[in-house]
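User: Can you fold this complex?
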Amino acid sequence: MVVDEWSEAEADRVFQALADVTRRDILARVIRQRQSVSALARHYPMSFAAVQKHVAVLERAALVTKERHGREQLVHANVTTLHRAARLLEAYEQLWRHRARGIEEILAEDQEEE
Amino acid sequence: MTVVSVHKDVEAMTLTLVAEFAASVERVWRVWEDPRQLERWWGPPGWPATFERHEFVVGGQSRYHMTGPDGQKSRGWWTITAIEAPHRLEFDDGFAGEDGEPLASPPPVHGIVTLEALGDRTRMTTVSKFADTAHLEQVLAMGAEEGMRLALGQIDEILAGTAD
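Assistant: Here's the predicted assembly.
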């Protein structure tokens, strides 16, 4: 089961990593295309070292991995972890969607009685 | 469509759902107030709820159980922390033990329900607040046994939130 496979510490790292707007943006970029930290750094008004730090946070959360490609290291998204993060909140969302449908069904009965 | 929007805030650890219904605010309030109506929609799919107690006042206690496909029971409780009929309801919702009384862990999920009139329709906003990520994990892990885990790999939403 997905939830069991994921320790609390891992989940915390993922949610903390995703809580930052720059890191979400970095993640979105490397999902579209794997790229080097220096290529990523050109998109942000901050130092290379600061971008490097954000990538490291994403890496610790296993949201991205670095892969050597010739002389440079390319950052790419770890889709498995992304799937797990999405599922966690999604499961609770689905419960509330189900509840809203249930309320609607009860309300629809009023109209049938009129 | 009933559900207007869903917002997941991983920082604040809240899930906000906005839904609209073709009914008055007073009518929608009754689906929360009347335990016979509440129990028809509260449980996850395949787990109908039964409210044995439902004191719809500030400080009031509710006790309920949900019955699974094999007859197994999952028990829960509410404490109502705020009521402004028919517009606002706040409550804590937690798991209960075999005896029906609250379990110390995990802590309850705090729910805030707001109803607003939109002409002859009603907008219902529900906010579910978790203490932290570990709390959400724990609630979902326990909820998994009740068949709450309907969702499968829809990555689109989290990605939509990260793009642009």
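The first helix of chain B runs from residue 25 to 33. Chain B has a mean pLDDT of 80.
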